[in-house]
Amino acid sequence: MRRELTKSAILAALLAGLAACAGGSDAYPSLAMRPFETGDAPAPPPAPAPANRPFITADRLAGIMADAAAAHSAFVAGEERATRLARAAAGLPIESNARAAALVALADLDAQRGKTAGALAKLDALAAEAAGALSPDPALSAAQTEVAATLAREDSAIARLWEAMGS
């Protein structure tokens, strides 16, 4: 009996829910064309004028180049010490104090190299923005080339020191 009563209660709840879904036809929107659907299409916006100005200011470019030059100067200043320590550590076991000092000097050089790479990354980002705006900048390209060459020299110096130390 209880089972039948439960089934009846569930059936009554379902019927009440279905009855709530039924409604009059006046509650639905009309599918007729609306005034804005029959009007003229709006005119497309005018195309933007091409940018004929330099994308990056000379001051901003000079600031990035100064950062790269400062990082390279610090690299060159630490390179002599790292060279001396790497040569002193050549052939020594990894546990030696001389090798540890050389590794620290190489890590310092790598940190300065990272600052130079950061300046190149800023230049690359600006070049990408300039390319996206269809506004190439010859001064920006020249700066990228210069910093990339500096970075290549720093990479070469670090590789030479690893070879001298006998990695």
Distance between the termini: 88 Å
Write down the Rg: 36 Å
What is the average of the pLDDT values? 85
Q: Tell me the overall shape.
A: elongated
User: Helicity range of the residues?
Assistant: over 70%
Low-confidence stretches: none
For the sheet with most strands, the description reads: none
What percentage of amino acids are in beta strands?
Answer: under 5%
**What would you call the structural class?**
mainly alpha
Q: What is the count of β-strands? A: 0
Name the helix and strand elements from N-terminus to C-terminus, one letter apiece. HHHHH
Number of DSSP helical runs: 5
Descriptive report:
It is a single chain. This protein is mainly alpha-helical and 167 residues long. The chain has a domain at 58-165. It has helices spanning 2-21, 35-38, 58-89, 97-132, 138-165. The longest helix has 36 residues, at 97-132. The N and C termini lie far apart (88 Å). 17% of the residues are buried.
Write the layout of secondary structure elements.
Blueprint: H1 2-21, H2 35-38, H3 58-89, H4 97-132, H5 138-165
Helix pairs in contact: 3-4, 3-5, 4-5
Quick recap:
The protein is mostly helical. The protein has helices at residues 2-21, 35-38, 58-89, 97-132, 138-165.
